[in-house]
């Protein structure tokens, strides 16, 4: 039975799904920021987007990535400026750590002209562990362009950015130890031998493959990936399921069959893990990918 889906909700699902998928492959904070500015314009229909990062020592916000007229060519920012925390709309959002939507900048004395004067602005903070990382800012030449839906979506995107930056920072802090050698071996088993496809895979069976104790493996995965063993395994399963859900080669598969192929041992395990890792159900994700294609 075909279900009627609100087009606005569907577009929202599509946008969130796209950002989550795109950010997942990024390996540096710089790439994360540039990817967001580009996709804010492509996915949300904005004409401008800038991400500021807080310089904690100087207490200023520095433009780190941009798209639109601020970005004339690959990873360059035209008229790159800095803003003091507390100054202007961007600075106020950084100070108060609360998003703002400005319908008409002509009536807001805080407005600072960047590359050109625009009439509406939307601004959302990026918070990591209760500390300000930066601000996502977008302006539009028309007044009253932005709405509450835009604010909602940009807040979710800021949260996705926060999560990815936190993850990358954690990876950069890991020392090269014997434990990391075991973890690298585990990563190879996951990526190349795809042991996660075995629905009976267990902590003890993987520990035996690595020649270490189950207790040590559990601690290793928790330290190296900041998650539990089962969440670590399911991350790979969900990633494979996502690929198959928007692959024509698996178009004849049911959604549950895709989950079982990826290594899940039941429908409920698949749906619960997929929702946990993506924020969407498998069917909602597949629907969003069909729209994208």
Automatic annotation (TrEMBL):
Gene Ontology MF annotations: DNA-binding transcription factor activity; sequence-specific DNA binding
Q: Where is the HTH araC/xylS-type domain?
A: 187-288
Superkingdom of this protein's organism: Bacteria
Specify whether Nucleus is a keyword of the entry.
no
Q: Which UniProt keywords apply?
A: DNA-binding, Transcription, Transcription regulation
SMART domains linked: GAF, HTH_ARAC
The record's annotation in InterPro entries points to: GAF (IPR003018), GAF-like_dom_sf (IPR029016), Homeodomain-like_sf (IPR009057), HTH_AraC (IPR018060), HTH_AraC-typ_CS (IPR018062), Tscrpt_reg_AraC-type_HTH (IPR020449)
Keyword Transcription appears in the UniProt entry: yes
Gene3D superfamilies registered for this protein in UniProt: 3.30.450.40, Homeodomain-like (1.10.10.60)
The record's PANTHER family line, in alphabetical order, gives: ARAC-FAMILY TRANSCRIPTIONAL REGULATOR
Protein name as it appears in the record: AraC-like DNA-binding protein
The organism is Saonia flava
């Amino acid at each position: 039975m075909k279900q009627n889906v609100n087009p606005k909700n569907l577009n929202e699902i599509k946008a969130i799904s796209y950002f989550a998928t795109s950010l997942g492959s990024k390996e540096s904070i710089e790439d994360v920021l540039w990817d967001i500015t580009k996709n804010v314009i492509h996915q949300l229909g904005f004409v401008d987007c800038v991400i500021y990062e807080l310089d904690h020592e100087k207490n200023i916000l520095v433009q780190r990535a941009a798209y639109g007229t601020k970005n004339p060519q690959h990873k360059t920012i035209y008229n790159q400026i800095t803003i003091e925390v507390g100054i202007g709309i961007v600075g106020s959002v950084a100070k108060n750590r609360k998003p703002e939507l400005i319908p008409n900048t002509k009536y807001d004395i805080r407005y600072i002209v960047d590359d050109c004067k625009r009439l509406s602005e939307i601004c959302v903070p990026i918070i990591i562990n209760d500390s300000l990382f930066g601000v996502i800012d977008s302006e539009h030449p028309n007044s009253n362009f932005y709405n509450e839906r835009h604010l909602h979506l940009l807040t979710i995107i800021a949260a996705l950015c926060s999560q990815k930056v936190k993850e990358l920072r954690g990876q950069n802090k890991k020392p090269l130890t014997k434990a990391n050698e075991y973890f690298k071996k585990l990563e190879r088993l996951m990526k190349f031998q795809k042991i996660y496809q075995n629905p009976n895979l267990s902590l003890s069976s993987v520990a035996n493959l690595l020649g270490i104790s189950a207790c040590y493996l559990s601690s290793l995965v928790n330290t190296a990936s900041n998650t539990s063993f089962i969440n670590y395994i399911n991350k790979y399963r969900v990633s494979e399921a996502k690929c198959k859900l928007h692959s024509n080669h698996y178009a004849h598969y049911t959604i549950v069959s895709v989950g079982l192929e990826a290594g899940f041992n039941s429908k409920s395990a698949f749906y619960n893990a997929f929702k946990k890792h993506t924020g969407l159900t498998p069917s909602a994700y597949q629907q969003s990918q069909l729209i994208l294609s």
